Automatic annotation (TrEMBL):
<protein>
    <submittedName>
        <fullName>Photosystem I reaction center subunit VIII</fullName>
    </submittedName>
</protein>
<dbReference type="InterPro" id="IPR036661">
    <property type="entry name" value="Luciferase-like_sf"/>
</dbReference>
<dbReference type="GO" id="GO:0016705">
    <property type="term" value="F:oxidoreductase activity, acting on paired donors, with incorporation or reduction of molecular oxygen"/>
</dbReference>
<dbReference type="InterPro" id="IPR011251">
    <property type="entry name" value="Luciferase-like_dom"/>
</dbReference>
<dbReference type="InterPro" id="IPR050564">
    <property type="entry name" value="F420-G6PD/mer"/>
</dbReference>
<dbReference type="Pfam" id="PF00296">
    <property type="entry name" value="Bac_luciferase"/>
</dbReference>
<feature type="domain" description="Luciferase-like">
    <location>
        <begin position="34"/>
        <end position="346"/>
    </location>
</feature>
<keyword id="KW-0560">Oxidoreductase</keyword>
Length: 380
């Protein structure tokens, strides 16, 4: 059975710290989706210099794109304040570089107990912008990630016994972890992975594969899922127990014309800086930040002023955004997700970027086709 989740920005709004997240959670409840997700960033992956009312209508409601709330705290708030339904709650995804894995293990186990077994620990290497500016070493993110996963599993599996474990990043010395699992089960771990080493780690440690779909095509997803499941089999695990999931960014509207207009805006062109140089090359263009630039993992957007952003994104190929996002009317988007389903995706988590456009009215009106998308995907 195909499953659907909804993810939301963690922006502090002009009117209330939780207004945006609460409204999105109610959309999730009303649409009867299977899960609700929040990202883990200290600052935005969009350049603040163009996330202003001049370029984004919704900036009148959330004027500071870098005013990010803390996700574990907010999910705990939702878990205790909103008892509607039984949808799962997840972080998409936790930063394994700046967060100590013992603290992550504690946060996930706590949420799992609060929700009676409905927490999902989404986890990945993190992004440079939430690490390097804050004094966190960024030279070996994959190695830190692997050690973080091994540490979390070691603590969860310790049964309250003291744990001593050698690690170049997170050594444990007589560490104790005595929170219980909920009815004998720890939170599922969904891993955002793309490269070969990360895919192998997903097969060894993960319960779900959770890449950002903007980094690949449907056929690439099939190949990646095969590698994850092969790694699981090599580790003596059931390869089919790993959920094939994906995070999809959606730009929708009431007509294709409205969507194309939004995609052509300066703000959405700035989104293209978060796309890897490899994908730019596929569309006959060079990434303006370098041929080896990885996109969202490498960018430090708060250092880019308005003139720089407009200059860097002057020649974004329209086809690049259309390949990296799900775009169009509700029917268009549902058809696009159906193709991903046919290539192995079992669980689509939708992140709505439709408000990132100059026209506030069109951005807000996109909530209706979004609801139609969520409902339609549940029937795939």
């Amino acid at each position: 059975m195909f499953k659907v989740g909804l993810s939301e920005h963690l922006l502090h709004t002009r009117y209330s710290p939780t207004a945006l997240v609460s409204a999105s959670y109610l959309t999730a409840v009303g649409s009867r989706v299977d899960s609700f997700w929040l990202p883990d960033h200290l600052s935005s992956l969009f350049p603040r210099s163009v996330m202003t009312p001049q370029y984004v209508g919704a900036a009148r409601l959330a004027p500071k794109i870098d005013a990010r709330l803390e996700p574990w705290t907010l999910l705990g708030h939702l878990a205790t304040r909103n008892r509607l339904g039984r949808r799962r709650l997840g972080i998409g995804v936790t930063d394994a570089s700046r967060r100590n894995p013992a603290v992550t293990a504690q946060a996930a186990a706590t949420l799992h107990l609060l929700t009676r077994g409905r927490a999902i620990l989404g986890i990945g290497t993190g992004a440079r912008t939430s690490n390097e500016p804050y004094g966190v070493e960024w030279s070996k993110p994959v190695a830190r990630f692997e050690e973080a996963l091994a540490t979390i599993r070691a603590l969860w599996n310790s049964g309250g016994q003291l744990v001593t474990r050698e690690s170049p990043f997170f050594p444990l010395r007589d560490a104790v972890f005595d929170l219980p699992p909920y009815r004998g089960k720890w939170p599922d771990i969904w891993i955002a992975s793309h490269g070969p080493r990360m895919l192998r780690a997903t097969g060894r440690y993960g319960d779900g594969w959770f890449p950002a779909a903007m980094a690949m095509r449907p056929k690439d997803y099939t190949a990646g899922l095969e590698k994850v499941r092969a790694a699981a089999s090599d580790a003596g695990r059931d390869p089919m127990s790993i959920t094939g999931a994906g995070l999809f960014f959606v730009m929708t509207g009431r007509s294709r014309g409205q969507v194309d207009e939004a995609l052509g805006s300066h703000a959405m062109k700035a989104f293209a800086l978060d796309i890897s140089a490899e994908l730019w090359a596929r569309h006959g263009a060079r990434h303006p930040l370098g041929d080896d630039f990885t996109g969202a993992q490498d960018i430090i957007p708060q250092t880019l002023d308005e003139h720089t952003v407009l200059s860097l994104t002057a020649d974004v190929p329209p086809s690049l955004l259309k390949e990296s996002l799900l775009t169009g009317t509700s029917g268009d988007v549902i058809e696009q997700v159906a193709e991903w389903r046919d290539h192995g995706v079992q669980y689509a988590v939708i992140f709505n970027v439709s408000p990132v456009q100059p026209n506030l009215r069109h951005g807000l009106a996109a909530s209706l086709p979004l609801i139609r998308i969520l409902g339609g995907l549940r029937n795939l």
